[in-house]
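Query structure, 314 tokens:
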């Protein structure tokens, strides 16, 4: 099921009180790249509870579950951020939570999940491998599985970002959105296009994990044979039909950025504004800094800084 604007608004009511309304910040004035900063605003989801936008979708999905199903517990697979969000949602709901992580997950992310009272299981080399194990475990134990990007309630939760942006900046022309599996861009596109049909949505993926870029080019879902990016939260091998359908209908194009370009964007955010963004969180800004997306004179652009971290500024 593809969620629509009504579902996004319902998600906004459901998550109220559990997530932060994150600020919009004008990038100008800026010392480095002052021309780029003019007309650019940043949606700081790096300041969201748990450190990324993922809390919106997780809370939306978990609190949409029937109470009797929720009580049995919840399970998911994650490269990190979705896991934190589901662990937070599970603790907010007072239920047992199990998170499957790939071996590539950083040790500090495992420790952070422990701090959110989640049980952690390590399985597989990439998110897709962990996800298969999580699905099997959820089915065997009768637990609710929270998909990181293909669940309609997760997509609706992520769409609440667009509600906030367009309420504060209704004159925006373009939204730049990082893409992993496609939950964030799907939710934002659904809500933004419903509220303002002429708005432009541009996706950004790592060149080493062009999951939806390749799927759009092929006209079908493509599973990547390999992944080559340090931005592991943007690196599933395969998206899902609901995300591809929404992206194909609403996203103007997807641009690809190198890890080094995301790292430089993270450093720019830190130098200019003291914003600590992880590589994936800086992806949308990287597309602008490098010039893969060039705004026209007077164009109003919003880049989503979708996650916090220090992997890009060390």
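Result returned for the query:
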């Amino acid at each position: 099921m593809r969620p629509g604007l009504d579902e996004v608004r319902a998600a906004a009511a459901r998550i109220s009180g559990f997530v932060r309304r994150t600020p919009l910040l004008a990038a100008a004035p800026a010392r480095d790249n002052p021309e780029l900063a003019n007309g650019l605003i940043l949606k700081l989801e790096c300041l969201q509870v748990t450190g990324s936008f993922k809390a919106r979708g997780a809370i939306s999905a978990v609190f949409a579950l029937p109470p009797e199903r929720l009580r049995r517990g919840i399970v998911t697979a994650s490269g990190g951020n979705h896991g934190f969000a589901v662990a937070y949602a599970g603790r907010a709901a007072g239920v047992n939570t199990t998170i499957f992580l790939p071996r590539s997950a950083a040790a500090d992310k495992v420790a952070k999940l422990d701090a959110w009272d989640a049980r952690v299981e390590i399985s597989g080399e990439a998110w897709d491998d962990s996800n298969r194990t999580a699905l099997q475990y959820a089915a065997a134990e009768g637990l609710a599985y929270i998909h990181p990007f293909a669940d309609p309630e997760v997509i609706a939760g992520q769409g609440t970002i667009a509600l906030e942006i367009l309420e504060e900046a209704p004159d925006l022309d373009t939204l730049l959105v990082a893409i992993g599996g496609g939950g964030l861009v799907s939710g934002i596109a659904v809500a933004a296009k419903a509220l303002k049909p002429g708005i432009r949505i541009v996706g950004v993926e790592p060149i080493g994990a062009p999951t939806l870029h390749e799927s759009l080019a092929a006209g079908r879902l493509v599973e990547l044979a390999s992944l080559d990016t340090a931005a592991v939260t943007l690196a599933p091998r395969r998206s899902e039909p609901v995300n591809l359908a929404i992206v194909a209908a609403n996203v103007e194009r997807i641009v690809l950025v190198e890890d080094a370009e995301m790292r430089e964007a993270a450093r720019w955010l830190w130098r200019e504004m003291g914003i600590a963004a992880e590589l994936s969180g800086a992806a949308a800004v990287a597309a602008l800094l490098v010039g893969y997306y060039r705004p026209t004179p007077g164009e109003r652009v919003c880049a989503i800084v979708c996650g916090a971290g220090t992997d890009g500024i060390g």
